[in-house]
């Protein structure tokens, strides 16, 4: 029960240095950082330079180090480090969502074969213990959906935008506050959210869907007129990563969505993250917390490290379904499509159009579309079009999906 | 990994029958209810009468039953059953908060001595996995506070009351909807909340504080004028169970509190429960879900049962502090005291009075008081007085406490 955790740390950025500080402040005497490897020998850091090494083998070949904590940005380099560390029989704690989303099954197999743990709570929604809960607590239950605001940057920008501040100005504030990167593409176009969604799907539903197969539409093209529409209807716009299980099929995507006031996520603003878990018997559960930042993320990493002391592993009990359930785009969704030019709108066919509005300045239409049709467009690159998912009109604040087989009358021929 | 769970079930009320249904609907083939013991042979039930036994020994002496699930109302009888089951080497899953709050350390010792698990997630906040999270996830972190709406009945009544419906009418609606018992004393006077708080304190801070030592003031005396005051200030009133760790002292109590709009709990209405956990590094986390009802509670019970398959136990790692930290009433709190008669108010001395209002119909005063002074009154029985805790004026939506040693200038002499 009092196993020593001897850490080799890769990366000393916001999270790495946060972890260093958290460990120094906490009373975990059996956990220590033994070596730190960073990329740039010249960068000025908050602790003396003799603490740093620059060759990854310094950690990987050190037999006394039993745990690698990987907190670097480069997903390819992270992949090499994590793979090697697992092969060498070291436990790994990582926060690199892109790397994990793209190589999850391979890394799980490696960890199993070498009888070590591979933990990554910090990769999804920072300090919210969502992976642990999906693994441990929602294991018995028939999970039906997960819906999350898992990117703090976009939630911060949308909070500003919902209050009438322009996207450009909101982005500037986010960058000044350190919530947005210099190149914010991964956040604002929904890539970051879908890496996290890929990981959530594995722990919620048992299958690994590579993030390349998941549709992501971000918030870059949302226009003041869309916000105006939202305000008129009493909605706020949130960027959701969501997945549902319908019979033996899993659907999942990242897209902005109108949210009504009676949805808990309506109140989740600024850099906060939130995840709603819905299960057959436990009803809806909501988790809210800070999704990013030095200490919240470092705290999640430390939680994983502490769990290693007790030999904790993800068991992936739901993975027995791998091969039996499949990921599908074969479902309907109700969308709002807006543009300054009505010709743009005519390029997307809805199978059922519920509403449309046309004017010289702005036009929009609302209706149902098969998701696989929607996926044919790259909306992030199609700047003229705003695509926003609508809340269901019947069940409050929820999208209504229905799989094709249940709605034969609506099947496209 | 595929241990058979052979259950002896005590009680077939809302939760017991819910569990029975949930188990029938789930795919957990290695979990089965072998025998059910109920009290009343004559009561009509949803399944055939040959399923029921009436002597508790039928389960307790059955060597094939390895797990007792205790879901009866009577705390004293529950205590006898749980004690005996643990002694006989059976795992126990219970939802009886009063019984657990009053005998926790004894039952933990019994479980340890007999090398069995004693789990009770359903006892606190129904389907919200708060005990598991406090045990597993917030183990490494320096937890500083927990604040919860842990009683759905009072939250439902307060939601109505905040909207201007009288307490009496709100209680009637709650009873019609099945949210309130015929005798609602335990709920509305805050007893139920403090049993749960006692359990939360054990898992959050490591010490067992018997619920008899915890102050509880419920919502029975809240008057329309208090609601009016709340509305004027933009507050809602919520019944909070809360505990904080300040240095090596734990404080905790149950009382109504004014909540501002920017507090997440402001939006937690009707029968929903919510728990905020604050920790040094992970910042604030919020969990929201249904706290009561047949399926949410049964789902929590089933989660415990499923965890038994993997030999799960609460480790009580924080209990090492038992004896080193103490529970204290030696702190200040800012209160609102209202009454239709100003003479009532004069019976309670504030050490610092910030505001007061007097009229023929209604009077109130606001200010600081030492908590141990407040505890001398039984506010549940003192119908004339409304006692409501105020949110801090500096840090939003939080009470400001300060321990006596930190505020020498305010010490009473």
Distance between the termini of chain A: 62 Å
CATH architecture of the largest domain in chain A: 2-Layer Sandwich
Count, helices of chain A: 13
Oligomer: homodimer
Mean pLDDT of chain A, to the nearest integer, reads 88
The geometry of chain A reads as globular
How much of the sequence lies in strands of chain A comes to 15-25%
Radius of gyration of chain A: 22 Å
Main beta sheet of chain A, described? Answer: 7 strands, mixed
| Structural category of chain A | alpha/beta
Taking pLDDT < 50 over at least 5 consecutive residues as the criterion, the unreliable ranges of chain A are 393-413
Question: Largest interface: which pair?
Answer: A-B, 44 and 45 residues
Specify the CATH class of the largest domain in chain A. Answer: Alpha Beta
Short description:
Two copies of one chain form a homodimer. With 413 residues, the first copy, chain A, is α/β, with parallel strands linked by helices.
Describe the model.
- 2 copies of one chain form a homodimer.
- Chain A is of the alpha/beta class and 413 residues long.
- Chain A has 2 domains: 5-119, NAD(P)-binding Rossmann-like Domain (Rossmann fold); 132-292 and 325-410, 2-Layer Sandwich (Dihydrodipicolinate Reductase, domain 2), CATH 3.30.360.10.
- Chain A is built from 13 helices and 17 strands.
- Chain A is globular, with a radius of gyration of 22 Å.
- The interface between A and B is large, with 44 and 45 residues.
């Amino acid at each position: 029960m009092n196993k020593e955790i001897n850490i080799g740390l890769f990366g000393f950025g916001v999270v790495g240095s946060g972890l260093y500080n958290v460990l120094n402040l906490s009373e975990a005497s059996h956990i220590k950082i033994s070596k730190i490897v960073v990329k740039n020998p010249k960068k000025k850091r908050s602790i003396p330079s003799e603490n740093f090494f620059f060759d990854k083998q310094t950690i990987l070949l050190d037999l006394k180090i039993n745990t690698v904590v990987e907190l670097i940005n480069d997903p390819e380099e992270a992949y090499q480090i994590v793979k090697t560390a697992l092969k060498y029989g070291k436990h790994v704690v990582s926060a690199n969502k892109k790397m994990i989303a793209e190589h999850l099954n391979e890394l799980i197999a490696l960890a199993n074969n070498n009888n070590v743990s591979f933990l990554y709570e910090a990769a999804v929604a920072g300090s919210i213990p969502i992976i642990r809960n999906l693994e441990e607590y929602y294991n018995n239950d028939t999970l039906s959906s997960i819906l999350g605001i898992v990117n703090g940057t976009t939630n911060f920008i949308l909070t500003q935008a919902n209050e009438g501040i322009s996207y450009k100005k909101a982005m500037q504030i986010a960058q000044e506050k350190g919530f947005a990167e210099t190149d914010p593409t991964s956040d604002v176009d929904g890539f970051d959210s879908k890496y996290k969604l890929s990981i959530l799907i594995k722990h919620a539903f048992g299958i690994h869907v590579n993030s390349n197969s998941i549709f992501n539409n971000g918030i870059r093209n949302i226009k003041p007129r869309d916000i105006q529409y939202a305000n008129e209807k009493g909605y706020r716009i949130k960027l959701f990563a969501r997945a549902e299980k319908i019979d033996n099929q899993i659907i999942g995507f990242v897209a902005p969505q109108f949210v009504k006031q009676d949805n808990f996520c309506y109140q989740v603003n600024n850099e906060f993250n939130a995840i709603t878990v819905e299960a057959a018997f436990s009803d809806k559960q909501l988790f809210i917390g800070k999704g990013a930042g030095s200490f919240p993320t470092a705290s999640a990493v430390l939680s994983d490290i502490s769990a290693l002391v007790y030999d904790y592993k993800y068991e992936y009990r739901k993975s027995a379904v791998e091969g039996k359930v499949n990921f599908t785009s074969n479902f309907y969704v109700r969308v709002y499509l807006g543009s300054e030019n009505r010709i743009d709108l005519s390029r997307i066919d809805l199978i059922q159009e519920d509403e449309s509005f046309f004017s010289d300045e702005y036009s929009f239409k609302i209706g149902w579309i098969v998701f696989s049709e929607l996926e044919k467009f790259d909306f992030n690159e199609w700047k003229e079009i705003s695509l926003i998912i609508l809340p269901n009109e019947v069940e409050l604040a929820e999208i209504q999906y229905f799989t094709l087989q249940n709605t034969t009358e609506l099947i496209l021929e």
